[in-house]
Design goal:
Helix content of chain A: 25-40%
Strand order of the largest sheet of chain A: 3-2-4-5-7-6
Oligomer: homodimer
Largest sheet of chain A: 6 strands, parallel
Radius of gyration of chain A: 25 Å
Number of strands of chain A: 22
Structural class of chain A: alpha/beta
Chain lengths: ~600, ~600
């Protein structure tokens, strides 16, 4: 016999969980006690929103499911933004929440609340989880854990949720009597026409002059990075990456063309728009990637899309010649097999792609000429030049997200990621906590803005307490830069709620870090930037570095909508990025049209 | 013709909305622009959780619906804890969220996301709102606004939600063509047997020796404070208050017996348990009020319960002799009419009640004898002695909630409140922001703990920016006091995630406030406490005051569960509070049993 709460922890230990993020609370009190007594290490965040976000980042670094433990009521609702992020970006994550005694739950009574700090969290998280259940029968705890974890990790991964009433947490159970979950292996998704469809892909590849592969997180989820690299290298296939896969290859790889998208790289966008065969593997092709003019996306190519989620294949913003519902690894393996020994003549196309990559860097040479303040793209460029292959880098949102993914030069082995789909401001700092823990408490870099930083800065306490060697860079642009620039562009310059003049103030970042006993420095000019950044990243302790940038610095290049005289909005195809190239130059870059 | 976003703001102006809380964002960009151009003042919070909580407190102070404006995706999910608080505590609140273009919403496609930073927020908030709708047809905007506001304010109030896609926000509409909402007045709740039922109540009152009225927020919602006071004063009826109504009467009122509950006042609990007629009006009788031994609650009384929500009347934790589904004002008016001219002989019972009230104060005289550090009950006692009738006081959770409501001596006209049902840590500071704005930016007091403070401290920036004269007192007890004491009591002293030794650190509060350019002081002894507190509350600017208390100070009195030797839990009736009275004394206080 053992207490159910203890069983939960030993079950998690058994599947290899070594760390859990939590905020303790009354509704989860037995679970917290069990966690405290287990071999699993726990990290106390200072808000449950941070628990969920740290957990997400942990899963991304580990490449495995992560676990959050929170209490009833607000403990659960506080996590929702983080859980929604896992849902949209396909991250396997288990939240275990405490709940009031089963007899005090509202059930179907129609009451708004019965137990103290109660809410029916399952109803609320159902739309954003693959499995969400309240444990009512203690003998089903194993079943629910097994099923939840199976679903979180299988097919298209995502978050799952198990809610455990306090009286159930403390019940004694007999492990041998527990019901078990048996997965229905026939439910594993396999495209039965895979062989035939891949044959067609091979035919298209053979006749293609300008093939381009676009890979996304599916490569990571299916752990097929090596297979993929073998595929492209054996057959000289140029490729680009989606936002959740920007770190799968060194940026200077000879076949890598870069990162397409609305806030992408010009060269990569040209490659997509000029390809005659476009093969997307494991990327959902979000609008931020395809642009709002999605019908114009890869418009000169035959399109093959491989995704594990049929709804993604069927969505209206994408039209494909061949749709393959498959795990990325299964598809890549089959394609490798069928292509085996075959050589494709792509050398002039590779040259063209590399030419674009060189000709249109995200970081312009003029950026380094300014002395003061700091250009954020130049900063990212210098920072990436001095980071090591073992570093993990996460970002917050706005320019810290888009700018970093545009400018950062990845070294092989580095991890760089952001929650790209939900993109919640404030995600960066708690994500750095989770990433650092997953990274064995080794150096972890976080790039944030001053606006987003405020949204979860309480996690400085988590960093301080655990002495996590996080290097937090805060791009100070006096407010919400992306909002401000959207307002300047689309509202005749009418600003609202984006800077000090329009309702927002921010604290002194150095003094704030100091309140947490975290060292902090401010950099405001580029003169000695590399040297100064080196000192910061070499510091063994946590450190906060404020980067003073021009609050009017443009976020470029980007795909920008424009307005017709009648007010209707014109959506641009992704090759036509702002600042606009001379039309002659744009035309020259378009091989087909 | 006008832009829909502008119409929304002029509609809100038209119904008297003068302030809106917001965080600007891309998905709500037209609404933000319209708000910026309207006559409505806007307050930029620094996290949407704070927007919702500020909004709730604003509604409570104003006694009217409040409005939040947030962006798509995380902008909406960040508010959920605050909205759930409004749901459970019956606060009328409208959230307007921006959304991606209608054509980019996932709808029923099964996709996890289509538009940028999209989520189907309506699905998520439906379980915690009275009305939640996405506006798809611009000509229905008036209908949705009217219906949402009607529902938020009618019957049992609560939150409502309107989600507006960005392309709908910017559409031109013709106001004269807009569909309108006509409320079905027949849906207004009236108990058709009200007259007969009140007759029975009158009969019970006439034969009662020890009648007690328990009033809750229903009194405030129906704006029947004056009627209620006339009722009790005309007929010498002693009464107690529920947590959301502790401020409806001066604490020293001759008929007022206090605040019953698990963290209540002993005297009030004795009054409830000894009453022979118990009449609850507009309080949902939460378990925190009745105790977990709810069958023992008011066990010597005939019970009459008046509530506007039939599901509350029918809930299993309450048994009543007479249940009346009615608005509090309608019921009180009818009862006043039927009692008119009748005199009830309650003088000895009033004397008994006042005797309890005097004999068992929450603030014990021994508390003032200690020199250092500060006893939190003594602090509340001194603070309440020097605050004015015009002050608004809000609290965070844990001891700042329970201890304040136990110890605070209300002056007539003061407002003191906390979100008592959902009781989310971190609620206090943003609530103070909302309360202060509703209080015409006059002095507002917030009492928080060091744990809860961390959860929304970014709102110091909102205070600083708007120079809101908030006096923020932070009870520093080195962590999560309530959790720690629960663990000490129930887990043989095994602690986890509640203080520095078990995983939690906190920043230096003074330096933190200083980072926001807010003055801060630390008080750590009682010697000159009144004088020092007076200086703090007389300071015209915002100020943070850290109160150093003993991290082992008990939260007493309270109703505590105990364990049988076999491990089963014994729930105590509310008269038997910890620290336990000698059994003789307990017996003496129980007139019946």
């Amino acid at each position: 016999m053992s207490r159910l709460a203890d069983y939960v922890m030993s079950f998690l230990e058994g599947i290899g969980v070594s760390d859990i993020f939590t905020v303790s609370g009354g509704g989860s009190i037995f679970l917290n006690d069990a966690l405290g007594q287990s071999k699993i290490k726990y990290y106390c965040c200072h808000h449950e929103q941070a628990v969920a976000m740290a957990s997400e980042a942990y899963a991304r670094v580990k490449g495995d499911i992560s676990v959050s433990l929170v209490t009833s009521g607000p403990g659960g609702t506080n996590t929702i933004t983080g859980v929604a992020g896992c849902w949209i970006d396909s991250v396997p994550n288990l939240t275990i929440s405490g709940q009031v005694y089963l007899g005090q739950t509202v059930g179907n009574s129609g009451l708004r609340q019965l137990g103290v700090q109660e809410i029916n969290i399952i109803d609320i998280v159902k739309p954003i989880t693959k499995y969400a259940v309240m444990v009512k029968n203690p003998n089903r705890i194993k079943y629910h854990l097994q099923k939840a974890i199976y679903l979180a990790k299988t097919g298209r991964p995502g978050p799952v949720w198990i809610d455990i009433p306090a009286d159930i947490q403390r019940m004694e159970i007999n492990e041998s009597e527990l019901e078990v979950f048996v997965s229905d292996e026939s439910s594993v998704i396999v495209d039965h026409n895979l062989n035939t469809k891949v044959k067609k892909v091979v035919e298209l590849l053979k006749s293609s002059q300008r093939p381009l592969i676009h890979v996304g997180q599916g490569i990571k989820i299916s752990k097929s990075e090596t297979d993929f690299m073998e595929l492209v290298e054996n057959h000289n296939l140029p490729f680009v990456t989606a936002r959740n896969a920007n770190d799968i290859v060194a940026s200077d790889h000879r076949l890598y063309v870069g990162r397409p998208g609305t806030y992408g790289q010009r060269g990569a966008n040209f490659a997509v728009q000029n390809s005659d065969l476009y093969l997307a593997i494991g990327t959902r092709l979000a609008l931020a990637q395809t642009g709002y003019a999605s019908h114009d996306y890869a418009r000169n190519a035959r399109k093959v899309i491989v995704d594990i989620d049929q709804t993604e294949l069927d969505k209206k913003t994408i039209s494909a010649d061949i749709k393959i519902q498959s795990d990325a690894k299964i598809f890549i393996t089959e394609l490798k097999n069928q292509l085996s020994g075959m050589s494709l003549n792509t050398s002039s196309w590779i040259k063209k792609c590399q030419d674009w990559k060189k000709r249109y860097p995200a970081v312009l040479s003029e950026y380094q000429k300014q002395k003061c303040p700091i250009n954020s793209y130049h900063f990212i460029d210098v920072l990436s030049s001095i980071l090591n292959a073992a570093d993990v880098i996460v970002t917050d949102m706005g320019i810290s997200f888009q700018g970093t993914h545009q400018a950062f030069q990845i070294k092989r082995g580095q991890k760089l990621f952001t929650n790209s789909g939900f993109a919640a401001m404030g995600w960066g700092l708690p994500a750095a906590v989770g990433a650092c823990v997953a990274n064995q408490c080794n150096r972890t870099v976080c790039i944030s803005g001053d606006g987003g930083f405020q949204m979860n800065m309480q996690e400085l306490a988590t960093i301080m307490h655990n002495q996590l060697p996080i290097k937090l860079f805060i791009l100070n642009n006096n407010g919400y830069l992306t909002i401000k620039q959207t307002q300047e562009h689309g509202f005749d310059g009418r600003l609202m709620g984006c800077n000090q003049e329009t309702g927002l103030s921010f604290p002194d970042i150095l003094r704030l870090a100091n309140a947490y006993d975290i060292r902090a420095v401010r950099l405001d000019n580029q003169e000695n930037l590399k040297h100064e950044l080196k000192q910061i990243i070499d510091c063994e302790k946590p450190i906060v570095c404020e980067i003073i940038m021009d609050p009017d610095q443009q976020q470029i290049p980007k795909v920008l909508n424009s307005k017709n005289p009648d007010g209707t909005i014109v959506t641009k195809p992704i090759e036509d990025m702002y600042p606009y190239l001379p039309s002659e130059e744009l035309k020259e870059n378009m091989i087909s049209n």
